[in-house]
Amino acid sequence: MKVDIGNLLQLQTIDLQINKLDEEMAEGVAEIEKRQATIAERQAAIGELEAKLEACEKRRRELDAELEDETARIKERQTKLMSVQTNREYQSLLKEIEDGKKNNKQREDESVQLLEQVELLQRRLEEQRNQCGAEEGLLSEATQKVGSLKDELTAKREEIVKSREEKVKDVDAALLRRYELLRSRRNGKALAAVTDGVCKGCYMNIPPQLYIELQKAEQLLACPSCNRLMYHERESEGA
Questions:
Q1: I need a labelling partner for 139 at 20 to 30 A (CA). Which of 49, 72, 112, 225 fits?
Q2: Helical segments of the chain, H only
Q3: For residue range 131-181, what is the model confidence (pLDDT) as tens digits?
Q4: Residues 194/206, Cβ–Cβ less than 8 Å
Q5: Cα–Cα distance between 55 and 43 in angstroms, integer?
Q6: How far apart are CA 230 and CA 199, in angstroms?
């Protein structure tokens, strides 16, 4: 039984090393994905600002055209005032002129507001573009760094996997299946040390009689709480 536990402990150590390497690689990939998501958000914000800016500038062009047309109509009516025959027609033209001037004043006010909005949008757009450029630079650095790290970790992983393949040969097939099942269900740890009657896998007390049997090391025993395979470890050994 001690041999089985020893082989499984060595196998678990190897598997935990592999898991750690996988986590490091995943962290690197996650960092890249995070920066890509940030850039995508920046680009979406830039697109929205560009659309708003284009809409404002388009409206300003429309207002300029309307101002020009209305000003021409006002001049025509002012010229026509000199040749009207009736007071009624004269008053009608005066009203049209005043209405035209009033509409042009509203257009001018709106154009000024749009100009202020355009300046604000341009500043915000420049900020977003600068920030996006900075993020793209950081992404490039992170991609190179993660690429180098991935190559290094992959090489280490391949070596460890080879040692695992050799160690698996020393483990009974049925016991290996049990180990793999527990490992998949217990966050990579199928075995747990027990010290002073406490399982270090779940930190629960095991029954006294079971603890006595465990110390005899005559059979493989599982923790009643977490189902991990147990092995006895004195407190000094754990330290």
A1: 49
A2: 2-80, 87-168, 173-185, 208-216, 235-238
A3: 999 999 999 999 999 999 989 999 999 999 999 999 999 999 999 999 999
A4: yes
A5: 18
A6: 8
Residues 6+ apart with CB under 8 A from 219: 1, 213
Q: Which CATH number fits domain 21-168: 1.10.3720.10, 3.30.870.10, 3.40.50.300, 1.10.287.1490?
A: 1.10.287.1490
Least Cα distance to 44 among 110, 135, 119, 138 occurs for 135
pLDDT tens digits, 172-211: 999 999 999 999 999 999 999 999 999 999 999 999 999 9
Instruction: Name the residue type at position 113.
Output: Q
* Token pair for 3: 């041999």
Stretch (H or E) spanning 234:
none
Beta bridge partner(s), residue 205:
198
d(CA 228, CA 129): 54
8 Å CB contact between 101 and 73: no
Report the largest interatomic distance among the alpha carbons of the chain, rounded to a whole angstrom: 126
Domain coordinates of the chain in residue numbers?
Answer: 21-168, 173-238
One-letter amino acid of 100 = G
